[in-house]
Each structure stands twice: as structure tokens, then as C-alpha cells.
Amino acid sequence: MKQVFEKEIVKQEQIFNIAVPIPEHLIVVEREDYLNLLSQVEEGQWWVVDDVLALLKVSRTTLINDILLNPRFKNEMDIETNSEGFVLYPRGKGSPYRFLASRTRKYFEENFASILL
After folding, report:
1. How far lies 66's CA from each of 15, 21, 70, 72, in Å?
2. Mean pLDDT of the chain
3. Residues 40, 102: Cα–Cα separation, whole Å
4. Domain that holds residue 59
5. Are strands 46-47 and 98-100 parallel, antiparallel or unpaired?
6. Are 43 and 50 in contact (CB under 8 A)?
């Protein structure tokens, strides 16, 4: 008769205390606090298309054709059709798009999945 020995697996936990020096010119801030501070700076600021392109890292064609002109999103964004909107659409050739910065950032943060899918 063969005996089977079970090995007890012992979970080991190691704790390391380390010190990471942070240069005087830098600070560590929680993400939520950083985004709150950023939105306060953006309050009342208007962006142009290039600002939104820098935020989203998409092509101009994607931003305009696939997002801004897509009826699904346009109805939510256009300030002329939605009081909660944040985009002033061009009124004629050569007229620029204008974006309320704080709401633009918030909208794209909250709708990231639905826009990309």
C-alpha cells in the first residue's frame, strides 16, 4: 500500500518598507483629486478642435466624422439642441467648433466605451 503525503502549502507574505525620494518640484496626488483640480482650471474655458484632438489622441477625421457628426452623439453635445450640451457647432464655412472644456473632458471620460464601440 502506497502512502500519499499531502504537502501543506504555506502562503508566505513578505513586507518591504522602502523609501522613494520625491524631488522637491514634484508632488504625488490621487487621480480623483488631480482630475478635480484640472476641471476647476478648465471651468469657463473654451477649446477648439486641436485641444480636443490632444485630449483624445484620435485623428481629426475620426473626431469630426465619427463622433461630432454622428447623430447619436451630436444630439447630446450640440448646445443648440440640448441645454446640457457643450459643443458649439460651426454655423458656416470657416466657422470653428467650440467646446466647453470642463464638460468636454467629463463627457469623454464618462462615455469612453460607448463612443469607441
Report:
1. 49, 45, 6, 10
2. 89
3. 8
4. 31-116
5. antiparallel
6. no
